[in-house]
């Protein structure tokens, strides 16, 4: 880990360690680790990819109280850490276009580094850890675990995705998590995603069987 990435990691840890919605620094570090794993078969600029991985949730509008101010702070920090403007632009372009919600209405164009970071972030939303994070986020936001009378929504806009009124955590699997694997970019991520998706499907099947007993 070079000095610039070490500074980025420390800054991300300072900002995300207290999050209890499933986007804490443990999530950030897993995404960074997965970036390194995917780059084993997908050559890319590791410095750009890791920087975006560490910072991708710092000014997310689900987390930051003032996303615009936090975005400006991140840019200033990157300059302070020794990144030039072209590198900062690459990092910000990845973060600004990689989220699930920003790709609902039309798929955003991402660099190879962006595709890797997006895959790494999405892989952490599925599988065993994805299940835990889904319930952690739901609990943090007072979401109902399950109600068979509330059906999954057809999410065709970002506004619909953000409007979680009368939503349930189990519905979130149908609305988002089961769909993630089909939208992954890299072959390596797709292989991992297929296995993790099946694990989630088995879990939801078992959950509903137990619910109805």
From TrEMBL:
UniProt GO MF annotations: hydrolase activity
SMART domains: HDc
Keywords: Hydrolase
InterPro entries, A to Z: HD/PDEase_dom, HD_domain
Pfam families: HD (PF01966)
Annotated HD/PDEase domain residues: 20-135
Record's keyword annotation contains Hydrolase: yes
Protein name, entry field: Metal-dependent phosphohydrolase
Species of the source: Fructilactobacillus fructivorans
Lineage summary: Bacteria, Bacillati, Bacillota, Bacilli, Lactobacillales
